[in-house]
Amino acid sequence: MGVIRSFKRNFSDLFKKLFKKQNARIGIYGPPNAGKTTLANRILRDWTGDAMGSVSNIAHETRRARRREGVTINANGSSITLDIIDTPGLATKIDFHEFMEQGMDETESKRRAKEATEGVIEAVKWLENLDGVILVMDATEDPFTQVNVTVIGNMEARTLPLLIVANKVDLSEASPSTIRDAFPQHPMVSISALEGKNIDTFYEELAKRFG
Amino acid sequence: MDLVSEHRLSEMSPVEKVRFIIDEVKSGKILVLEKGLSPEEEASLIEMTMTFIEPDGFSGIEMESYPSEADTSFLGKLLKKKSLRTRLTVIGPADQLKTLKKDRNMISALISTNK
After folding, report:
1. Residues in A touching B102 (Cβ below 8 Å)
2. What is the pTM (predicted TM-score) of this model?
């Protein structure tokens, strides 16, 4: 009997390993200061009552990727459970002088720059381990940045779902239509992560794309 | 400024391409790549660039590439395989090359000879 019980248990474990549905891993990407962590905080506050990390007007505030597992979002009459990864802002250059211009001393600026380079490397490495990306763009800025082009290219090459978020539409100079015109092949939703404007539409689109 | 042909890059492995670009850009050159890099190679280039950044030295690169286009060739359609056609790319030291304006089919950049 012991052998049969053991066989049943092993078979059950194997079955669970083979067929257990893993949560989709969704990365929040974008250039520095696009509002990635503000959006991650909004999602977590709305659905878990928690927060992901601190935000700042100084670029590269987020210098380590943060993952929150099992975030359940209810939209479109159904629910999806995602693992959300808030990534450091992607950049092709990091100059510590720019932090000094924000009032930091030289030592602190150099430390922040070093950590920021490590953060970018981490963000790039995460690209290979995701099931989809939320690409956050600042709707007051030119959307054709190299970071945006590279992230979109990587998602297209891997045929993974992508949702573009035109953030900061609470600002008068925001132009989400410029983003839509720039990347018409991908779904886009305009929001203000800070004020929560249009956030329900964002959740509906999230469920549609990643559910 | 060096204009690098598609043929020259196609002879290199992805790692060699990225290393070649970093070495050239670090030495102060601006490269115009006829066919650009694949999205994965662009990501690798960003990653490797970060490892070379040092205070009061190399601060990174400026890279300007057009968005990739889907391969609409007869063969691509026949094989029903999603592939992307990469396009011209300009890469240079961040302190010498600055993007002024960019859209789907036009890049305006400022090149400075003084660091």
Report:
1. 142, 144-145
2. 0.87
